[in-house]
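B., you asked whether I could sanity-check this one before it goes into the benchmark set. Here's the sequence:
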Amino acid sequence: MDEDILAMLLTALVLFVPVAGLTLRFALKPMVDSIARLMEARMRGAGADLLEKRLALLEQELQSVRGELSRIVERSEFYDRLTMERQLDRAKEHAATDGARVLAPR
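And here's what the prediction gave me:
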């Protein structure tokens, strides 16, 4: 009698384990896939937030560089004007001294 119960139990397990495995595989696969997609979407969302923060920092840095560049251009233009004025003043002085030499008796 023990052998009959053991044989029936073994037969049930031999049939039940594969059937249960296949059932669980086909029943749980859609849920596991949806959970995986949800986790991927969260990771993409976190990645997008990080990307937006990095882009905002780059935009701030670009604004800073633009400000510095405009100040450098202004300084360069100012020095160019000063140089031009000095050259004009020297040319006027040179012309005045040349004119004085021409007018001066020899």
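One thing to flag: The helical segments are 2-103. Otherwise nothing jumped out at me.
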